[in-house]
Amino acid sequence: MAFEGCEKIWMNGALVDFEDAKIHVLSHVIHYGSGVFEGLRAYENSRMGSGVFRLDEHIDRLFNSAKVLRMEIRYGKKELRQAVLDTLKVNGLKSAYIRPLVYRGMGSLGVDPTSCPVEVMIAAWNWGAYLGKEALLDGVDVRVSSWTRMAPNTFPAMVKSTANYLNSQLIRMEANMEGYTEGIGLDTGGMVCEGSGENIFLVWEGRLLTPPLGNSVLKGITRDCIIRLAGEMGIEVREQPIAREMLYMAEEVFFTGSAAEVTPIRSVDRIPVGEGKAGPIALELQRRFFAIVSGDDEDRFGWLTPVE
Ligand code: PPE
């Protein structure tokens, strides 16, 4: 099953059986994409048993996403943080991918969503490496998508809304059908944005570059981790516009995301990146990232919430 370990799902305050976690076909969200969500991971950890990675930041972003879409969540942040922990505990999951979703349920149809109830669900299951087992070590082959990311002032790229993922699906399907692992979206001006479900970084003349916020990218939480870990390594990070051709000329390119973690990119459009394999800086950042989540290193940034 795709949702291994997912026996109970938190729905509007109750833990219900997997089979019973259903919504009505007339729910607003499935007609108009009126939902906001998060994706985060819990990791088995030698110091605390299991820890949820950056729980507060994910809950904060969920509330910010809901705010922009004028969705009033009837639970507090504290309750939803606890609900994430409860969902992991009831399923006995130590390492898991967690998916909270806030959506407009059934009220009426028509674009105006305001008469539809705002519902919340949280599911968790075992989800291995997002871009494949070998991806983390070997790197992935990607293409620049023929699909452009959302233009400014169309879909709010910094809102993690379900509707934004229509564009992501187009990017990902196109890439996969042509034998690439993932696609990179450019903005309306042709500058680099992000993958269909990942932020992107370049190693350029020894510095780390990533597109700035406001450049049609999600304010990635793993992106923030990498910026901090790079700082710790004495690597300068610049948030700046990135031209497409820089992808081919960079020393290294890699993706970051809760699902993708830190995934090196070894080629773009069949042009090798650097030596055509996972780069040393990406691998070192990845090593530091996994050392914290696993408990090999102490949680020096306070990124983990124990599941107890
Ligand atoms: N950009 C996009 C478009 C994106 O979807 C993600 C996460 C990121 C950047 C990285 O953000 P963060 O997870 O906070 O570091 N994508 C989520 C959904 C993936 C999916 O297939 O679903 C995720 O990684 O959970």
Short synopsis of the structure:
This protein is an alpha+beta fold and 308 residues long. Helix content is 27%, strand content 29%. The strands form two sheets. Strands 8, 9, 10, 11, 12, 13, 14, 15 and 16 form a nine-stranded mixed beta sheet that branches.
> For the CA atoms, what is the radius of gyration?
19 Å
H/E series, N to C?
EEHEEEHHEEHEHEEEEHEHEEEHE
N/C terminus separation: 27 Å
Which small compounds were modeled alongside the protein? ligand PPE
Helix share, percent:
25-40%
The beta-strand count equals 17
Overall residue-averaged pLDDT value: 97
User: What spatial form do the alpha-carbon principal axes imply?
Assistant: globular
Which regions contain 5 or more consecutive residues with pLDDT less than 50?
none
What summary fits the major beta sheet?
Answer: 9 strands, mixed
State which percent range the strand residues make up: 25-35%
Number of helices: 8
Category from helices, strands and their pairing: alpha+beta
Could you name the key traits of this structure?
27% helix, binds ligand PPE, 17 strands, 308 residues, nine-stranded mixed sheet, alpha+beta
What does this structure look like?
Helix content is 27%, strand content 29%. The chain is α+β, with helices and mostly antiparallel strands and 308 residues long. The longest helix has 15 residues. It is globular and about 55 Å long. It binds ligand PPE. Ligand PPE binds next to helix 6 and strand 14.
Write the SSE topology.
Blueprint: E1 8-11, E2 14-17, H1 28-32, E3 35-37, E4 40-45, E5 49-53, H2 55-68, H3 77-91, E6 96-104, E7 118-125, H4 135-138, E8 140-148, H5 165-177, E9 182-186, E10 192-195, E11 199-204, E12 207-210, H6 221-232, E13 237-239, H7 246-249, E14 252-257, E15 261-268, E16 271-272, H8 280-294, E17 304-306
Parallel strand pairs: 8-9, 8-15, 12-13
Antiparallel strand pairs: 1-2, 1-7, 3-6, 4-5, 4-6, 5-17, 6-7, 9-10, 11-12, 11-14, 14-15, 15-16
The chain binds ligand PPE.
Ligand PPE binds at residues 39, 168, 194, 197-199, 218, 220-223, 256-260.
